[in-house]
Amino acid sequence: MSGALLVAGTTSDAGKSVVTAGICRWLVRQGVAVAPFKAQNMSNNSGVTADGAEIGRAQVFQAAAARVEPEAAMNPVLLKPGGENSSQVVVLGKAVTDVTAMSYRGLKAQLFEQVLSSLADLRSRFDVVVCEGAGSPTEINLRDTDIANMGLATAARLPVLVVGDIDRGGVFPALYGTVALMPPADQALVAGFLVNKFRGDPRLLAPGLDTLQQLTGRPTLGVLPWVPGLWLDVEDSLDLDGDRGPALPPVGEDVLRVSVVRLPRLSNFTDLDALAAEPGVLVRYATNPAELADADLVVLPGTRSTVSDLAWVRERGLDLALARRAAEGRPVLGICGGHQMLARSITDDVESRSGTVPGLWLLPTDVVFARDKTLARPTGSWRGHPVSAYEIHHGVVTPDGGEPFLDGVRVGAVSGTTWHGALENDGFRRAFLADVAATTGRRFTAAPDTDFAAVREARLDALGDLVEQHADTDALWRLVEHGAPAGLPMLPPGAGWTS
């Protein structure tokens, strides 16, 4: 068996990533060797594979859903936005160039060869490859150079499942319009629909689904109910506004409040997922000094553009709020780009090309950006607790004093590290939160049995359950094994094509 399926969506954030993960988990529970694939991902939320390749974080958790090690072939092209009109292009896990939106168009033909080669490689080694599209498959202004949606589907003859988010409203015109705007060759591969995030009695939806099938000739293969608290390794900072599930009551007497500075080019914000899963820890995102005032811990997270986001921090007056916290001995944690901001100086002739600029002067460190990116999975310890993590950065931080803190330093209550994922280590997280509570005088007790790996695994199982219980899995099997059925009707010509 060498089957494949493309999960497309009517919009960004329609649920493609979680549906892909759910299908991967459902298949692997059937004894199928399955791999995820996203030809082109645009995200600053990335991870590192065992051999030091950088790929989208969504593909890392989809690989976890499939119970396989993530690898570069699962996300051959990653675009990391660094400004209003520029992105770093990462190919097979390594940064190769920076592009604008227009200059990238000329690069796509070359990248498409790598995309198809990576997909063929995965299909030769796995029974099924579940592909995730990017954005919408009917961006008619981009169709001629598309390598991630219908361009991929037509080249590889992939059956396409279109996901629509009913919680946004307008799911029926979105599903119909997605197909209607496609040229006939693309329409021929769209085999069905999936409705995501439905609240209420699905019987109320049935008349609309029947009419949609009459109009398009394509069935709806499932209605997935709204389930709060399934947030997982999201790839877009827009998802931070979504439902993160109910807050768990504290084990001790107090709640620990964590304010995360919501930088404009925020990256790897999944570092904070483990804190949000901890009972009695309230994580919120802040953009002004008032939102830091009552926080027990302020986190400066990662960023794709350290110097530009540091300027934003100063424009918002957040630099003064952070300086006051440090002077008062109130905890601050900088991670990767946030760690770099805490330094005395930052010399960047690589990302921003700004030369040397002053940092926040909260740690005795200096930063110099190297042209080659550091990609690694380091291990270490803090106060006897083992820590495994991953690194993705150009900035090299050199300390000059301070107490060791993982790979970085600590002065007073201000700590910095370039290590992403450190807070997912349960012993380290509990010890660090206990230290924050002791410093701030909170009567907070970290839950002794919170296992973040088990939390993530349970959420992946819940996604698999959604597919198994609410999707037509027999129809999914047929698509995976045999492709899109022949003779699917063509909708009348739309704006995107002519007959």
TrEMBL record:
Residues 6-230 form the CobQ/CobB/MinD/ParA nucleotide binding domain. CDD domains: CobQ_N (cd05389), GATase1_CobQ (cd01750). The active site is at 336 (nucleophile), 420. PROSITE patterns: GATASE_COBBQ, GATASE_TYPE_1. One of its GO terms (molecular function) is ABC-type vitamin B12 transporter activity. Keywords: Cobalamin biosynthesis, Glutamine amidotransferase. SUPFAM superfamilies: Class I glutamine amidotransferase-like, P-loop containing nucleoside triphosphate hydrolases. The keyword Lipid biosynthesis does not apply. Pathway: Cofactor biosynthesis; adenosylcobalamin biosynthesis. Residues 257-425 form the CobB/CobQ-like glutamine amidotransferase domain. GO terms for biological process: cobalamin biosynthetic process. Catalyzes amidations at positions B, D, E, and G on adenosylcobyrinic A,C-diamide. NH(2) groups are provided by glutamine, and one molecule of ATP is hydrogenolyzed for each amidation. Belongs to the CobB/CobQ family. CobQ subfamily. This is Cobyric acid synthase. It comes from Klenkia soli. The lineage of its organism: Bacteria, Bacillati, Actinomycetota, Actinomycetes, Geodermatophilales. The gene is cobQ.
